[in-house]
Every structure is written in structure tokens, then in C-alpha cells.
Inverse folding.
């Protein structure tokens, strides 16, 4: 079996028109849309994500500001920077670029973001609304993973209701911005859902869980963690991971799935790059547009893209 490749770039081309219209509608209504991203330290993944977000914002004419904090910054300094963005009426959306250093309390940082500006959906209030099935924001990465899966189901001529009701969705990774929201989205589609994390891998049980999956969503942040032996034939594999790996040839991007190995067993698989990433960037902008309406800051329609 050779898996069908789910082309995220092609799906993004279709989604881009929808998001562009949502952003254009803000301009027509005189509403500002300005996204602020925050990174801590000099992580390659965070820098890559910021470049992608900046490029997508420029393409869609969403104003963008980036705040870069030093690796040795204190927790108080991070919270102070977030508070300043919360209080700035010109900022309608805030995104923390992970990872943040382990010494910082990520949960406290997420909880400090104004809920109506939290476009990653990681504030406790927004995660709670998602759990109740009444989301204000859905995590862009988790939403993009299911957008890709839903589109593949539809294009394959499969009844989506029957597909999910007969499927076990296994999510590898339990982060607040991907793994947990993905689990909730699976449950909302009436699928059976299971979550595993690093402890399953450490104790040699990862394959026992993943080989049972009809749909395997991998968001572990571990380069090429999932190999052929972790996947049974016919599984749909959604690779959320984007890992910047350096070797003697320089830096290159790989997923959490060993694409070459898994493609020989899966029914369908997303590549890295070119899979979930392009969709995620657009979903950030989609959430930013929602946040702009929630925070409603009128602006001159001549405002363009701003980066700093």
C-alpha cells in the first residue's frame, strides 16, 4: 500500500480566498486587525513560525507586530509584555510562539492573555468553551488538522458521520495548543478518541496505542517519532509536527512522522513541509479576524501591513 498524500498547500489555496474575504470585510467595516506574536529565546522553530506568520499576514494585509524576548527573561517580564499587549487597543490578537523555556510556567503565561485576543485558544476560558462545544477560538493547528482530514474524507466520497463514528482517533501529544484541542475536536465528531504522551514512548507502549488507530494525529514535537512499526495498514496519518533539524548540510524541516516509512503502510498521510503548516498559518489569521471583531477597534481603511 502506498498512501495518498494529503496536499496541505492545495487545501490552503482554497482556504486562503475565504480568509482573505473575512479580512477584507473587516476593512470595509472600519475594524482594525493587528496580530502580535511573542517569542522567548532563540529557538529555530519559533523563528520559523514567526517568519511564516509574518509572510501570511503581509499576504492578507493583516497588520503584524513581533515581540522578541531574551532567553533569560523572567516570568514577570513575560507577563508584563503580555499585559501591555492586552491593554493596547491597537492589538486585536496575541499569539505565543512555542516553545518557551522550561523554567517558565507556560500555563500561567497562557492564562495571562486576554481571552478575546487569545487566537491560539489556550486561555483556560477558551479551552473550556471548546470542551463545551461552544468555542470562541479553536487552536489553529488542531483546527487545521481536522480541516485537512474532513476535506480528505469529503473528497474520497466517504460519509463523514459514519467515518468518525466507526473510527478510533489516537492523538500523540497533550499540549494545550494542539493535543488537547485535537482530542476535543475528535470527540465532537462522535469518534472514539485516545490520548498518549511521552510516557507511552518511554515505557515502550507507544506502538500498542498507535497501531490501534484508524486516524493517527501526531503532535509530539519529536522528529520522526512515528515509524512504520507504529502504524497499521490503512491508517490515516496527520502529521502536525514541524521540527527544525540541523545536520552537516544545514537546517531542514521534518515532521513527527517518518514520512518515507509510514507512507508504505498508511491509507493517507500529510507531508512535512506542505501539510498542516500552510493551513495553520491561515487559521491564525482567521482567528485574528474573529478577535478583531470581538475587540472592535476602528482604524483608517488605509492602514497596511506593519511589522516590528
Amino acid at each position: 500500500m502506498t498512501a495518498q498524500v494529503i496536499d496541505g498547500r492545495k487545501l490552503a489555496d482554497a482556504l486562503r480566498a475565504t480568509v482573505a474575504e473575512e479580512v477584507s470585510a473587516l476593512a470595509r467595516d472600519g475594524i482594525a486587525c493587528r496580530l502580535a506574536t511573542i517569542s522567548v529565546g532563540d529557538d529555530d522553530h519559533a523563528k520559523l513560525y514567526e517568519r511564516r506568520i509574518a509572510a501570511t499576514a503581509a499576504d492578507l494585509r493583516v497588520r503584524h507586530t513581533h515581540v522578541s524576548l531574551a532567553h533569560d527573561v523572567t516570568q514577570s517580564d513575560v507577563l508584563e509584555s503580555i499585559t501591555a499587549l492586552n491593554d493596547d487597543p491597537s492589538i486585536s490578537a496575541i499569539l505565543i510562539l512555542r516553545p518557551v523555556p522550561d523554567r517558565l510556567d507556560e500555563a500561567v503565561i497562557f492564562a495571562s492573555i486576554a481571552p478575546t485576543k487569545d487566537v491560539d485558544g489556550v486561555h483556560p476560558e477558551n479551552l473550556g468553551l471548546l470542551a463545551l462545544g461552544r468555542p470562541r477560538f479553536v487552536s489553529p493547528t488542531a483546527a487545521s488538522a481536522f480541516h485537512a482530514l474532513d476535506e480528505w474524507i469529503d473528497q474520497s466520497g466517504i460519509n463523514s458521520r459514519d467515518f468518525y463514528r466507526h473510527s478510533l482517533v489516537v492523538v500523540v501529544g497533550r499540549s494545550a495548543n494542539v493535543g488537547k484541542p485535537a482530542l476535543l475536536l475528535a470527540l465532537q465528531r462522535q469518534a472514539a478518541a485516545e490520548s498518549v504522551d511521552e510516557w507511552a514512548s518511554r515505557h515502550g507502549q507507544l506502538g500498542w496505542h498507535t497501531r490501534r488507530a484508524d486516524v493517527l494525529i501526531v503532535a509530539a514535537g519529536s522528529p520522526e517519532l512515528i515509524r512504520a512499526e507504529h502504524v497499521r495498514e490503512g491508517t490515516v496519518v496527520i502529521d502536525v509536527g514541524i521540527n527544525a533539524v540541523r545536520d552537516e548540510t544545514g537546517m531542514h524541516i521534518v515532521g513527527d512522522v517518518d514520512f518515507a516509512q509510514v507512507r508504505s503502510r498508511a491509507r493517507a498521510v500529510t507531508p512535512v513541509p506542505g501539510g498542516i503548516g500552510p493551513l495553520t498559518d491561515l487559521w491564525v489569521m482567521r482567528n485574528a479576524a474573529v478577535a478583531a471583531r470581538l475587540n472592535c477597534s476602528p482604524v483608517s481603511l488605509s492602514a497596511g501591513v506593519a511589522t516590528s
Remarks:
- Residues 297-308 have pLDDT under 50 and may be disordered.
- The longest strand covers residues 34-40.
- Residues 29-119 form a domain with the Rossmann fold fold (CATH 3.40.50.10860).
